Amino acid sequence: MKNVLTQRLKTLPGPMADFIRQAGMLADEMGLPAYLVGGFVRDLLLGVGHFDVDLVVEGDGIRFARECARRLSMRLVAHGRFGTATLYGRAGFKADIASSRKESYEKPAALPTVSCGQIKDDLSRRDFTINAMAIGINQHSYGDIFDFYGGRDDLKNRVVRALHPLSFTDDPTRILRAVRFECRLAFRIEPATMAWMRCAAREGMLERVQKHRLRDELILIFKEHQPFGVLRRLHDFCGYGFISPGLTYRRAWMSAYAKIREAALWFEQNLPHKRCLDIYVMSMCLFFSPLSLRRIGDAILAYAFHKGEGLRILSFKTHAGPVERQLSKKNLAPSHIYRLLEPLAYEVIVLIYALSTKAIIRKRIRDFLLIYHGTRLHVRGEDLAGLGSRPGPHFKKVLTGLLYAKVDGKVRDRQEELVLAKRLLERS
Ligand code: ATP
């Protein structure tokens, strides 16, 4: 196994492999046992790509991270409160560094008490056996696997297994993680683990855990490749009552998600100069849309979703219906379409496009994104002042009127814009 893993570590992208080797040498110099841990080890054994390095040292992790940053010219962000640090490599990868720790849970679903520990303690506090393995990176242990809980067997048998019966009572967010890994890896949750999960859910543990911790796990679900597969499984398992009363799984979400991906691909290919779409936010808009506006607002507040996420979810709920109704009307001027769509975020527009079955709506959204949205005026505020008008709030009105005229093709060049500007100024 040692040889296989040493070999695998060599096949990582160059800068990452170099970092791991150099971090190991530095750990030797500082007399610290150091290990790769968590999802990195799982994915290395599975032979699938993993983008972040996760390191644990037996000793002061922040001091070790500082030394790595200094010697290897990496950028360091220390999270003092958690005793962890993140290093950013020039080649774009990131490495999380922590001190190995021991945890004990005094109350169900509460945060644990933490103290220093050895690697075995650190692995024993982890969620599943497949995430509870470590690989040594010191010279004498380079490529050695530390697998105290049968993680390799579970990887081989494609099983998600918790480490002990109280795992989900200690930390109910693991229920969401179990379902997420099961779906992502096409594994199955092992029967005893499933029973422990059910028991914790039945005892209302998901309602007791801090909402922001559930939020972080929910967002990770929305960011999965097949979020609605995970959400269906979660629903079969414990429903969504802990998110909002009345929210249930909809079969149509699966096909809607395929349409979202198709529309997002179209957006990316045809509008490469625009910012990347947050596809996970589009999934969130879809997920929350069956709820009333009030319930959505309550969930956003309770879970403290980030402002950008919350606003787009609310915007889709509020605007999708009215905008669709307007866009399906006959004889709409381009400037009318512009006014309807321009205030909305790309995610909301593309989601309406993805879900609409009406060709006219889809065409009008495409026209907006490809043609009207990029409309720019030659004339600016200084030009209006040059026409003899004193700057004031009416300038904005005139420039907006000019823009709409340009979107409608009524003015084409600077000269025509100036002629119309003069007329609009006289009227304002
Ligand atoms: P991903 O591929 O989604 O990033 P990951 O396994 O790297 O998966 P992280 O959320 O980055 O997941 O967490 C890193 C490691 O920390 C996990 O592999 C696991 O060992 C541990 N961990 C994370 N969350 C928990 C938790 N709630 N309870 C116990 N251990 C956890």
Report what the structure shows:
A hairpin with a 4-residue loop joins strand 3 (75-79) and strand 4 (84-88). The mean pLDDT is 93. It is built from 22 helices and 11 strands. The chain has helices spanning 2-10, 14-30, 38-46, 61-72, 119-124, 151-156, 167-170, 173-185, 191-202, 205-208, 211-222, 227-238, 252-270, 279-288, 293-303, 307-327, 334-341, 346-355, 359-370, 381-386, 394-407, 414-427, and strands at residues 34-37, 52-57, 75-79, 84-88, 94-99, 101-104, 113-116, 134-136, 145-146, 159-160, 188-189. 56% of the residues lie in helices and 10% in strands. It is of the alpha+beta class and 428 residues long. It starts with a helix and ends with a helix. The chain has a 7-stranded mixed β-sheet. Helix 17 packs across helix 21. It has 4 domains: 1-157, Beta Polymerase, domain 2 (2-Layer Sandwich); 159-239, Hydrophobic Seed Protein (Orthogonal Bundle); 252-369, cca-adding enzyme, domain 2 (Orthogonal Bundle), CATH 1.10.3090.10; 381-427, no CATH class.
